[in-house]
Write a sequence for this structure.
């Protein structure tokens, strides 16, 4: 108990340095962190990250993308001008980040988020937040206060001058299979590859503490190259399907619904429905 109290005191001292005034401008100045930021053992690369961790009023801000959120056990969905975030099981063993070739500047302008935001069923009144949620490069940024990081998201984190900020999510399901990405619903976890390059056709599924099982969709995916959890835009550029957050992978019963792109003499957006117990594709529907 004493150790926990000391850690909380140190963390709160770090978080509450330089509190902003009540009046918040629509646009604010943010900077890149000057200290390391590590998520579940992976050190972030803010210099070349399309959505870097930011600092505003001495508070570290976290980019709530689908990849980063899923890596730390959060489900993010966008619909009807509302961002909904809720705690779930982490759905990835590896951190997939958004690399850019041009280095980020040390200082940028972000805006105070003006849309609806719901966290674990509770609507956030951003105009009344001491540390408001921000929007940068069309992504919502959350302040890593004790309230959000620990109470809402269930993360463990600590800060010191040498190691910087370390965040760890608590995993409730042990996954050791071949897949890098997972869709999780209740006690079911279905793993999938990023794409079908290099004959990556192996999917996995796991129920509770039972052994993880593998199945191949190679014979059913011979009509093109597939990019899973992806969609193409009007310029044929690929993006993670979180660009339209209503197209996230999901599980219902024994069926995995997966947004993807099929490339064969052009690119096509599809929705796959896969019976992961039988190991077969039920349908391929154009989006």
């Amino acid at each position: 108990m004493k150790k926990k109290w000391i850690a909380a005191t140190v963390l709160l001292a770090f978080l509450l340095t330089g509190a902003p005034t009540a009046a918040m401008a629509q646009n604010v100045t943010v900077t890149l962190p000057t200290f390391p930021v590590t998520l579940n053992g992976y050190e972030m690369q803010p210099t070349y990250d399309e959505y870097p961790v930011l600092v505003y009023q001495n508070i570290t801000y976290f980019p709530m993308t689908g990849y980063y959120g899923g890596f730390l056990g959060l489900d993010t969905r966008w619909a009807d001008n509302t961002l909904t975030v809720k705690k779930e099981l982490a759905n990835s063993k590896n951190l997939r980040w958004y690399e850019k070739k041009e280095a980020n500047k040390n200082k940028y302008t972000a805006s105070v988020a003006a849309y609806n935001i719901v966290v674990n069923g509770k609507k956030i009144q951003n105009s009344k937040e001491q540390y408001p949620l921000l929007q940068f490069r069309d992504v919502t940024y959350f302040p890593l206060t004790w309230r959000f990081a620990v109470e809402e998201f269930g993360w463990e984190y600590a800060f010191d001058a040498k190691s910087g900020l370390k965040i760890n999510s608590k995993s409730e399901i042990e996954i050791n299979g071949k897949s890098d990405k997972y869709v999780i619903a209740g006690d079911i976890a279905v793993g999938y590859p990023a794409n079908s390059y290099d004959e990556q056709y192996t999917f996995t599924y796991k129920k509770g503490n039972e052994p993880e099982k593998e199945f191949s969709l190679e014979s059913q995916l011979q009509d093109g190259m597939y990019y899973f959890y992806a969609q193409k835009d009007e310029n044929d550029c690929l993006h993670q399907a979180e660009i339209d957050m209503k197209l996230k992978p999901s599980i219902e019963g024994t069926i995995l619904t997966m947004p993807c792109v099929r490339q064969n003499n052009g690119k096509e957006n599809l929705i796959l429905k896969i019976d992961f117990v039988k190991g077969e594709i039920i349908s391929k529907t154009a989006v």
In short: The mean pLDDT is 83. The radius of gyration is 20 Å. The chain is about 10% helix and 40% strand. The first strand starts at residue 27 and ends at 31.
